[in-house]
Design brief:
About 40% of the residues lie in helices and about 25% in strands. By secondary structure, it is of the alpha+beta class. Helix 1 crosses helix 3 and helix 2 packs antiparallel against helix 5. The longest helix is centred in the first third of the chain and has 17 residues. The protein is globular. It starts with a strand and ends in a 6-residue tail after the last strand.
């Protein structure tokens, strides 16, 4: 199994994997709500998240198993970047399709995690997902190692942040060297845990 960096043209592959991995994830179910259009709305929302990375030329990593992409990780680079006009248009189109109630729920999740923001430049692991067919095969570990190598190679980054809404992941991320920096309840629907892993010097 190896990890490659995908190109902006590979966004649909990213969306395929993340929709499979996050199909029943608490945030997705909460934001999208009870709708007969759940699968379509999920693809629209995840498509927006992936577009945010591809339009900014930010990392989209893929784990390959015998030429098949079985896991992906998408990241935000350190520092502030202006939002491209194409991304602003994509954002409005996304919420126009999914609806204002879903947008309000999404913003409630953002508000819950905002107090735990790391104020120094850092990498943020937006999403990491593994195809359900390959769960338990070490794909996430391979991707996490690649994420950490990227951060270690960037002297402008103080480390990596991420959040999870699955309590089973808390000990997993601690095992990967992450420190819990925040825990909050989101609109009485689910909990979120926010983590930070200080940058490790790249081994030379």
């Amino acid at each position: 199994m190896n990890v490659i960096q995908l190109e902006p043209d590979d966004t649909e592959t990213v969306v395929d994997v993340l929709c499979d991995a996050f199909h029943d994830y608490p945030v997705m179910r909460y934001v999208l709500g009870d709708t007969p259009h759940y699968d379509r709305h999920l693809r629209t929302l995840v498509g927006f998240f992936a577009a945010a990375r591809s339009l900014r030329n930010e990392p989209m990593l893929a784990a390959e198993d015998e030429g098949q992409v079985v896991g992906v990780a998408i990241m935000t680079l350190p520092g502030e970047r202006p939002s491209p006009a194409a991304l602003d248009a994509r954002r409005e189109a996304t919420w126009g399709e999914i609806g204002p109630a879903a947008r309000t729920r999404y913003e409630a999740h953002g508000a819950a995690t905002r107090p735990f923001t790391v104020d120094r430049p850092h990498h943020h692991l937006n999403m990491i997902g593994v195809c359900r067919s390959h769960a338990g095969r070490g794909v996430a570990r391979v991707l996490m190692d690649a994420v950490h190598e990227l951060a270690a190679a960037d002297p402008s980054s103080c480390g990596v942040t991420l959040s999870t809404e699955d309590e089973q992941n808390v000990r997993l991320y601690e095992h990967f060297g992450y420190q819990l920096i925040g825990h909050a309840r989101v609109a009485d629907a689910f909990d979120t845990w926010v983590f930070f892993r200080p940058r490790q010097q790249q081994k030379g």
